[in-house]
Protein 1
Amino acid sequence: MLRQLASLLPQGREFQITVFGSAPLQIAVDPTLTSADVDVFSDFEELNEIVLRAGLGTNQADFYIQVSSELNFRTSPRWKDRTQSARIGNCTFIFPHPIDILIAKLNRLDEKDLRAFRAVIAKTGHPTEAELIKELQLAVDLFRPSFDEEQGHDMANNCRRLWPLIYGREMDPRAEIIAPALAIRKAGYGEPVRDYKQELRDALKE
Amino acid sequence: MKPLDFSHELNRLMDPYWRKARIAARLLIKRELGKPWSPRDRRLLNRFATDSSVTNRLLDQAYCSHRARKRNGRSILDIIP
């Protein structure tokens, strides 16, 4: 499918397409993790048009290409630092690390997404519980409430659902992920130890 | 020749929250040096003490900035020497 997609691109310039969703896991970890679509995004604005013209888009093929936006890949801010790439013709396909694919899957956590967690851990032994907690702390902004205009994703609740099924224990995302991450962030801002405002108030009373 | 004074222009361009924090920090240092606050100082500080834009973080930066200027001189901290 990716070879076919690469062959459809105009010649004479370079392209970069990121593949996310289940496809990178299917390619790199477990071939049985199949999906009906290949999720991709690219800066190349005509990509969707090319895919539709080739009859490879949604509702056009049993196994189709879903051209999305980078905004649809809601994952760790570190994802671009740990990708793999493969070059086909004049196109470089970028594959995010499995941990970033799994973090993105936590936004929804359907049965299919749970299957991805199980398959990756069974094949690689990762992420361990400690690794996933650390990564989720570094991606703490994903835990913020959704905008009014969007369908709600509840990362905290999905973590609560995931943990007993994958790691065999209950977990409190607020205590184990959100609060430690915010404490690290606050320390990094260099919050002053001295309460100047209180000193001002006290001095003004004298 | 007397050097040009750009302080008015610098103050005009300065972020208002930063300016308030700098005034408050200067008055804190004034008190620490044993100098009493004037009625005007107290009026200003009463405003800053309840102003949510004057945060502890800005006050801390302003306080350290004033102290550093006293130790190291103006030139390393000021945009216009």
Protein 2
Amino acid sequence: MSTPILEIEHLAMRFGGLLAVQDLSFAARRGEITALIGPNGAGKTTVFNCITGFYKPTAGMIRLIGDHKTMLLERLPDFRIAKLAKVARTFQNIRLFPGMSLLENLLVAQHNPLMLASGFTFFGLIGLRGFTAAEQAAIEKARYWLDRIGLLARADDPAGDLPYGAQRRLEIVRAMCTEPVLLCLDEPAAGLNARESAELDELLLFIRREHATSILLIEHDMAVVMKICDHIVVLDYGVKISEGTPAYVRNDPKVVAAYLGVEEDEVEEAEAQVGL
Amino acid sequence: MSQEAELQKPPRVDVVAALKSALLAALLAFGLFALLVGVRTDQGPTGALVISQRFEDVAWLVAVVFAGSFLRALTFGDRPLDLARYLPAGVKAAGERLDRFGGFALLGFALAVPIIFYHNRYILDLGILVLTYVMLGWGLNIVVGLAGLLDLGYVAFYAVGAYAYALLAQNFGFSFWIGLPLAGIMAAFWGVLLGFPVLRLRGDYLAIVTLAFGEMIRLVLLNWQSFTGGPNGISGIPRPSFFGLPFIEGEGGFAEAFGLEFTPTHRIVFLFYLILALALVTNWVTIRLRRLPIGRAWEALREDEIACRSLGINTTNTKLTAFAMGAMFGGFAGAFFATRQGFISPESFVFMESALILAIVVLGGMGSQLGVAVAALVMIGGFELFREFQQYRMLVFGTAMVAIMIWRPRGLVGTRAPSVYLTERKAISSSLTREGRG
Amino acid sequence: MDYFLQQLINGIALGSIYGLIAIGYTMVYGIIGMINFAHGDIFMVGAFIALIAFLCLVAIGVSAVPLALFLVLLIAMALAALYGWTVERFAYRPLRHSFRLAPLISAIGMSIILQNFVQIAQGARVKPLPPLIEGGHTLVEGANFAVRLSNVQILIVVTTLVLMLGFTWLIEKTRLGRDMRACEQDARMAALLGVDIDRTISLTFVIGAALAAVAGIMYLLYYGVVDFFIGFVAGVKAFTAAVLGGIGSLPGAMLGGLLIGLIETFWSAYFSIEYKDVAAFAVLIVVLIFLPTGILGRPDVEKV
């Protein structure tokens, strides 16, 4: 059992009259792939937005236990969470920079170290050597990741030209270029076919293995979840209804009921109707 | 039916349908023009208004609309108007080559202008005017073209630069070379001041707020008589000198020092090369910045601000930097303007100027340096060419703005060149680039 | 106190005019998310058409003021509506799916066209008109100041009220109003459900233009003078009013108009008249920075 990297305690998010997330507590462990699943509207992306700073939670605490220090995320602005806490994310609707090339996309991700190296632009403007070296290193890193996802040949093509599956993978490696300790993926397998899903599994396992990055993902594709996740948290209507290993969660009657949309005691009947 | 299929359909020559649409168009024209054109109001001898009729003018207008609409319906039928098809292939190919060599060709031409047109004061002045707008266009390009921030009040920084320089020169006797950077710094400072509260606004709202700021600054300049001279402006701004040698006849002057016969043209030529140099500096800085992380961040900001934030980029600072840089170059241009004219007044800094500079940037193809330069040349040059048609000039200008937006909303230059490449620099079509929401 | 009351009355009258123009801005922004830069100039065109129509009517012998005004109202509304329709059809519709800056530039171009068209057609000098509606009522007879409510002011406020009521009825109860509200919420879905988007948008512009024309007539009656440039400043102020009240909200436009009218009047009366335009711009900036959704607007939450 490794140590936790992300601890969520009594998280709540309210939008006017709607309580999207209620008293949610769970932990994601270092070096593990944790999944957040649940029927549509369960509040999963809301939790993500709270963790990554795009929403300010109504209540609760979000603790990131990094390598050297622990940070509280619930009051930090989004870009600080990415920059200081090293939490990277992808989006449900892919947010690439479509008019920029693949290489440029990955270089933008390395903006902060490059800015430092360019002396916040001044030294870069007058062509100081330090910056060129840093830029070369950045390009190398981009090259590494592009190669990993098989898009090196298309490095100079505009990101908007890529097919959907490739765009998804690009978004993930772009997040990896920020060297995060925690990678939050919002439905990375959405819209992928079986082959692309398998490639995604491989990529995520590679990331966990080689880069020691913890992963938190929202997913509907149960094949992916069951295959690669170490720990699953199940939400329904903003409340955690189950948590545990894939085997445990799969058989938890509460979870089955939630997904079938029926009450717990009607599960057997519903399953019979459906032919399970 | 898809657009291409639509365009390839042989035109249905349907005279009756064409007549019908022409008739409707003529009716519309009649409704629009009958009163406003047909009846002219003038102040009569007693001061009250008297009317006179100009129905022949209305008749002419309606006839022209009828004829034009009829011809259009006949040749294009119900397909969209597509004049590009009729351009000979040669012109299109030339257009593509222009992209690559155009920059150098234009630069060479610009350098040669004072030599070729040495005795044509009008052309030299026109050249200075065009180059001033090229510089302003390049300055605004940083804000609108690269960072995607809709700024409708750019003239404010132009004004700040001009007035800062004028006041510094008048009150402290600073020479141009000291006043210029100071004016730029003042303008950049205002850029940060103005930008800070408003840069989190989106799209059209940012546009309107910047417009409001621009107008406010003009109104303050207009009314704060004691400080800015009000509507009379500031006159007697010292003319530029050639690094200390004034352009005067006789002793200690530029002509004498170089053994030339004095002519006022010397100063004009100097001003020409001065603005050319300033513009080129703007261009060089912009190109350098584009390749640095800040420039890339600007373009990424334009594409998707939320993605930028998720990558740890402080978008507020990024926007402020773009704003301040653009403002600084606007300020430089303003200082040049002040020293060239010798006299400035709030009249030169109306909203129309902001709109004009914005139109140059958008027409040029946002982010494209060459496009902006060509657009400035076309718009300002074209504007001047129509000088005889004083009254109709603005009307044509407005119509051109609308027509160009409909025809080429992405601007003259349809592609974007990536700032860094692995194997080859591939041009990215502007249909993929976003235009910025911030 | 009497001075205050007078300014209050003046402010409400002026505010009604701004409110009528503001409705056009807010409707168009609500339905296609675009600031119709040329709307202020439609107001100006409406004022000019009213002026010319009136002079023509007088020339052909219709000099009874109420009848003439009524006819002028109809003519100006109809022709301004035509202008509104034309502007939308030729300058905005082709750009509807283009990027954001294109319709903005096109609108600015249209504004230039309208201003210069009128300037060329009618000359650049101001056009005065002798006061058509005279008289008023003295409300309070103070020691050195009498508070007057002029008949023009009554006409303005009453007309505005009537139009507002009629307009609210249109939006709430009629098919067109429903279509407009649907387009505002989700244009694509509305189209899929059979709403004619082009027609609905055109009608939005037409109605906005007609209301702007009424504002133009009121302006003409109130100030007695028009020139080709009144559209720009009135346009920015009316837009400020729309934003202040909450862009997209009709009662908001009216509320915003009244507030701007009052702010402008009180500012000129108590502080300085040269800077009264600055006051309006300052309000715009303050509102957009601190309360971008306006008083009655709906908050805009961007989905990540």
Protein 3
Amino acid sequence: MILKKIQLVLFYIFCLAVTNTTLAQTDSAATAKQVVEKFQSELITVMKNGKQLGYAGRYKNLTQPVSDSHDLTKIARIIVGKEWEKLSETQQQKLVDAIIRLSIASYAHNFKDFSGESFIFDSEEETTRGGFVVHSHLVIPDDKPVKFDYMLKEKGNSWRIINIIANGVSDLALKRSEYTTILQREGFDSLVAKINERIDAYSKL
Amino acid sequence: MNIIFRKISNTKINYIITVVFILTTAVSIIGCATDKANEQPISNNKADPYENFNRKMFAFNSSVDTHVAKPISDSYKSVTPEFVQTGVANFFNNLKNINVIINDVLQAKFTQSAHDTGRIALNTTLGIGGLFDVAKHAGLEQNEEDFDQTLAVWGVSPGSYLVLPFFGPSTTRGVHGAIFDAATSPTTYTMIGVPINMVSVVNTRANADGSLKFINEAALDPYVFTRESFMQWRNNLATDGKTDSANNNIDELDIESLDDEKTSALKEDGAVAKKSNESNSGISLEPETK
């Protein structure tokens, strides 16, 4: 009887181990392309339900997909460049928080409804420094397609988006110019205040 | 966003004399503004050495847009049916294709020049003088070429960023390009050029409404936002979208330097873990709605 119980426990542990290993393998096996496609798919789902969800609903539904697919901490550090080291730990954390909220708010505002759009994968390529660029485009009915290039870097055992280049315009480079200019001209508090103003405006537009 | 720059570019083509005049004026004003520049932080952007002057011009243009261009554009939109607006836009796009074909050839894009010649022939005939874009339905998409791009292909650097009064963003290379483009525009040599161009300007502003709204919504600093997106957009056009995004030097080098950082004030793993918890709790990641 005791032997049978031990066998059951061992079997249970074995099953648990196999499940965990499978999950871990699935996670580590998620390629850069899969990360991007999963995020795009979640974005389209939110767009399809955009009107019913409203801004708050879209924000809520996009919070996890954006956090899971983007490396927003790294994005924040790149955006402020050398200024990052001049910020206190509290300021750094405040900036990261603000950029996370702004990123989600921006998606929630700009992808608010659906009129037949779809993302098409074009190709992917490895960069010279070990990153990946996933080339895709957004098909918009009765309009020109928008080219989206996603730049990803490895974080732990998964890939995360660190830059999006839309029709040749790099979001990271754009933000870095803006944010460093504001930091240098007006200071940290003004930068965070402006980010919060944008987030607030997105929720009301 | 790109649309507005394209439209502004179209407008520039038709105003050679004004551009030259404005450039002369701009250079004079820059000279005057330099004396006062000491009061403000000096621009750190190498591509924008005239930032102090440019910011003033940007503010001036924004004011002109708010008080003059937008009200006229709004009136135009309210009295003009959408199909007429589309027709007017198509007409000017078709005229622009003469310049596109010339620049195709100058850039040795001979297949594309044949494509664009077919486009203008179809639209001028079947499209009734260009009012209807029938070529698009035949699979002949509009290409964007101008002399600024040709100069880029020939190896000329963009030079300094400039904000021209009334015309908006450009570069020193772009101004030279606009002069050549104006010289190849049919409306430059016609008596009815001025009224035609006025219609073009109004129609252009009407079509740019969405793009301007996007800039106002997204930008923390509209001046820098416009400058960066304009410069990147022009570079993308000049390279035909073949900007080396995979090896984007600035981004990659920055990212690498961050990867190598041993002494970061923020311990990233801890921060991410904290973020993850906050995200799950739904406290700090919620939108700041009132």
Protein 4
Amino acid sequence: MSAPRVTALRYLWTHHRWGMIGFGAALMLALLFAVRLTVFTIYWADPAHRNQPIAGWMTPGYIARSYDVDAAVIRAALPITPSARSTLAEIAERSSIPLPVLLTHIEDAIRAAAAP
Amino acid sequence: MTETVLALVPSYGLLLVALGTFFSCLALPVPSSLIMLSAGGFAAAGDLVLWQVGATALIGAIAGDQMGYLIGRYAAQHLRGRGLSARRAALMARAEAKLHENAAMAVFFSRWLVSPLGPYVNFAGGAARIDWRGFTRAGAAGEVVWVTLYVGLGAAFADDIVALADMLGNASGLIAAGVVAGALALWLRAALRHRSIA
């Protein structure tokens, strides 16, 4: 590194330390986000990873859309008639069925509906 | 964490959307992107109504921007000139002048393209007393882009909300960190040039 450059860096470090620290931190953050973006892009590019399994946060309507089945198929698999926008976790709690059992019910119903 | 937020959206609906965008404009760590994406997704599934999601998100965001501007303005009134060396005060004055020059652009792009910086532009804009009407106009235009982008993507790719949230979160972090690094680099270069003149 040439001498003027060293003195420039030394000057900045003595007089604008927080600017230098901020610059370094921003660069590190940018690098971190770039790595994460690459990793996530590779992960989500795989169609198998994009197939979201049915989960407690989903509503019957969301599942019907996501799995491309008629909403009536999902409704028929539910133990109770849910109020508007109930999630599966709420439905499971209200009908005192364990959530995993309810999820299996719905998976079965979707599979049966999809079978020719 | 993601699933907890996703479960809250159908339960609290539009209220969560409005509060989410409102508080995210005040630099509070609210996952507003995920909330808007999933609200768009639930709208596509028929649990929410798309235009209502968009309108509520927009109202929350614009109200949050106004709040941030006011906070900056009042905070600056109380702090003005306190504890700053002459050198720092000059630097602040230059930053303020710069902000006045490019206020509309800074406000517009920090709503959506560099959204992690949005809240700080609100505070700084209020502190520097940039023209309120211009701030509101550019801010509202930027929020329309932000809300349309996130709610729209959520509705269009309802099945891939989690993937979308991951990618958009990191992409916007990358852009924001890059912009901050670039701005600081320019500032340091200006400081060096200032030295050679002095």
